[in-house]
Amino acid sequence: MTSGRRWEQVGRSGVYLLGSLVSGVATVLALPLLCILRLARFWANWHRERASRLLGAASASRPVRRATGRRAWAGPVTVRTSRALLWLPVNAMTGVVFGLPALLCVGNVVLAVIATPLWWAFGLEDRPRLFIDVPVTGWATALTLGPLQILLLTALAYVAFPPLARAHARICLAVLSDSTEEQLAERVAVLTRTRADVLDAHGAELRRIERDLHDGTQARLVAIAMRLAVARQAFSDNPRDERLVEELLRDAHEGTEEAMTELRGVIRSVYPPILADRGLDGALTAVTTGCGVPTRLDVGDLDRVPPAVEAVVYFAVAETLTNVTRHSRATAAGVRVSRTADRLSVLVTDNGTGGADDRRGTGIAGIRRRVLALDGTLEVDSPAGGPTAITVELPCGW
Q: How far apart are CA 390 and CA 376, in angstroms?
């Protein structure tokens, strides 16, 4: 680690320790108020986030899935109530224990910085004291002990602040993070709800396909068969009436083309052939090119992506851009697809009027079902007035 980065770490650690001291004292003073469950969880969440940032680790909070409803993914997990309440006395104690040495160190450095050039400005009985109990009575003492105290305490801070801050942060995360058993129980509950969602989505998809085939393609094929039967009968009754037969055959031909178009639409809704032909990059290029709003596409190096994930990404982007065209009144949109380790991220943005909400039937609920089926996450940021950003993350390491 370079010297500059080390000093930056020392500074961040010092601020963290002083903040922990302040929060520990505040916890003691406001303990009755913080025993309110909502405030206790907020207080605990704030400490967990700052501890995670200090350690440079991913936040201990993870997206939490709800079984159903408007927001199947609802931001960071709130610390469990029992752990939030446990953190109150732990924070009061550890904040003071870890923060007080930092305050003494920083305070005495500041004292030495002030006392060295300005010792004479204090009264005889109020002369500053260096090294705890050595009064500054002259320039010799000031110029000798002042810089020495600054140097020693700065060296102490350089060595001690980072490990002290990391120790406090680890204690914080140990108290506030779920145990292995709790994480496993939560995971089992999430998978149970996900399985139910997948079964519901699968059933709805089968019903949709059946409805499309029955009401659309099958009806057209029946009409074609009837026209062909009438044409054959007309030809048998009056072979010279070529105009009637030609008209009936033309109607049957047009009906066949319409039936094929509908059938292709149903097939695309199951698995788009363009993915097999052109891959995810080519399929997304076709979708963004055909969008009614100018759309910029940025696809990173995705390596190998499972077909199921490709299909969900394709449907998510296609449905979202359809919503942009129909509802957002946007003049520009963007699609960015990237991969980090085993997570595939899709970000779709537009500069429209915002207010995207799956309760309005804009297709977000369908996207969410597909994403949840693969244990992914969906976040919608669409304030009234815009802009809108929809983020999808999917596991793709299997």
A: 13
C-alpha torsion sign, points 311, 314, 317, 318? negative
Q: Give how far the C-alpha of residue 200 lies from the chain's centroid of Cα atoms, to the nearest Å.
A: 25
Predicted confidence at residue 75, as pLDDT, reads 40
**Cβ neighbour number for residue 342 with a 10 Å cutoff:** 10
Angle between the N-to-C axes of helices 81-118 and 3-29, in degrees from 0 to 180, rounded to the nearest 10: 120
Q: Are residues 26 and 157 in the same domain?
A: yes
Query: In this structure, are 127 and 214 located in the same domain?
Result: no
Q: Which residues contact residue 86 at a Cβ distance below 8 angstroms, ignoring those fewer than 6 apart?
A: 175
Instruction: Tell me the average pLDDT of the chain.
Output: 78
Cβ(52)–Cβ(17) under 8 Å?
A: no
| Residues forming beta bridges with residue 393, ordered by sequence position | 345, 377
Residues 341-359 pLDDT 10s: 888 999 999 998 888 776 6
Q: What is the mean pLDDT of residues 168-184?
A: 80
Peptide bond before residue 147 is cis, with ω within 30 degrees of 0: no
Query: Do 231 and 321 belong to one domain?
Result: no
Q: Pairing mode, if any, of strands 295-299 and 333-340? A: parallel
The residues with which 335 forms a beta bridge, in sequence order, are 297, 348
How many other C-beta atoms can be found within 10 angstroms of the C-beta atom of residue 53?
13
**160 with 63, same domain?**
yes
Q: Which residues contact 153 (CB under 8 A, 6 or more apart)?
A: 105, 108, 109, 112
Residue 317's domain spans which residues?
273-395
Q: Any bridge partners for residue 346, and if so which?
A: 337, 392
pLDDT tens per residue, range 212-223: 676 666 777 777
* CA dist 242 → 80, 228, 246, 324 (Å): 81, 14, 6, 50
The pLDDT assigned to 182 comes to: 64
335: three-class secondary structure by DSSP: strand
Cα radius of gyration (the chain): 34
3-state secondary structure 326-385: HHHCCCCEEEEEEEECCEEEEEEEECCCCCCCHHHCCCHHHHHHHHHHCCCEEEEECCCC
Structural domains in the chain (count)? 3
Residue 303 sits in the same domain as residue 188: no
**Are 9 and 129 contained in the same domain?**
yes
From the list 248, 374, 47, 70, the residue with the least C-alpha distance to 61 is: 47
Pair (157, 258) in one structural domain:
no
The helix or strand, by DSSP H or E, that contains position 339, with its residue range, turns out to be: strand 333-340
